[in-house]
Amino acid sequence: MWFFLITLHLITTFHRVSFNVVADLLTAEFNLTGAGLGNLAAAYTYMYVIMQIPGGMLVDRLGPRRIALLTGLLMAAGSLVIGFAPGAGLVFLGRLLIGLGGSVILINIFKFQASWFSPAKFATLSGLAIMFSGSGALFGATPLALLVNLAGWRASFISVGLATVLIALFSWIIVRSHPPGSIKKQGHINGSSTAAESASALSVKKMAAVLTNRRLLAPFLLNFGIFGGFIVFSGTWGVSYLVHVYRISVEQASVYMILVYLSYMLTAPAVGWLSDRIGSRKIPAVVLSSFCVLFWLSLTAWPGGILPGWLLYILSVMLGAGAAATILSFPMAREASPPGYTGSVTAAVNLGVFLGLAILQPLFGYVLDLGWEGLVLDGARIYILQSYRLGFLVCLLFSLSSLIAALLYREGKPGLAGS
């Protein structure tokens, strides 16, 4: 059951980074500016931002099985819309549908884990979930580049959409929300209006408790500052940056993206296990968020701007490892709140991930456009090194906010607002 939920998250990670490979193709076909491409890429995250809090309550209410079917079908529809889109407007709509479907998948996984596994394994399982589902990002790098060269970008997205339909249906058949014999929530077993009113009141109470819990601010900011930059490089502009500045092919540039995601996938379960083992979320969060700061500082301040190839390999590994710090935000949030709030608090801190993405992706594109000198190749805009470095400086500032949040995080027992 866990595997099928992870597979759905694998599809979300594929879509999160897929624009990196097809960025120049989309730019040329739809005559996009950097800000326009950033807006299309970020459309995926707009629904995440909107859905995190209500999505968390929806997961608590409907359960993992129903959510798995709904999210899978929405993502499938979005991928198919992109594949058949005659213009950028429908690509935007497709990204919105994918974002709507994917917005609650990770929350759904954490809800499932809280129901089926012991609390002592939560961080470890969360890391394993990211490791396995992160392979979607690997498919969105060199394999997608090869598939696009073979069949075109439209056929690639159509194929992914059809495969997603099958996975959603299998999830509905196989997944069960609760272990046999467990007590279901009142909203699941009582269809009366009184029960519905009680569930609604409970949801409002949960939302108020979550939004006023100051201890959730640190894990929220940890996600906000790290993940946006991580996707800017590995999911939207990293390939274009390497192709334009380092004069290498798309396939060669995609190798760096694979390194980033392999590092992320391998570090996530390791840091989850280590955090459970040493009983601390703060220490590994500080170390890993420092890696992200060092990555952006190097790209921003390296003399001459062109880093040696061997150093770029090392920094790519560091970026992936640093992004794994976000895994720790979920046990941080769980430990900062009482039992029964798993879906809601996970949604609250996960909002930081996608709010950062929603802001940083179009902002990065806007910064690139500011320095554009009119260069065009095969219909796609070509940006100079200084434009990229200015965008990297913005990412550096975001990552610094995460490091500060990790340093200020207070470890302690679960609590509610103001604790």
Could you give a short description of this structure?
The protein has helices at 2-17, 19-30, 34-62, 64-84, 88-102, 105-116, 122-133, 135-139, 142-151, 153-174, 186-189, 193-211, 217-246, 250-278, 282-301, 309-323, 329-335, 342-370, 385-408; strands spanning 376-377, 380-381. It is mostly helical.
Written overview of the protein:
It contains 19 helices and 2 strands. The relative contact order is 0.17. By secondary structure, it is mainly alpha-helical. The chain has a two-stranded antiparallel sheet with strand order 1-2. Helix 3 (34-62) packs parallel to helix 5 (88-102) and helix 6 packs across helix 7. The protein has a single domain, classed as MFS general substrate transporter like domains (Growth Hormone, Chain: A), CATH 1.20.1250.20. The chain is globular.
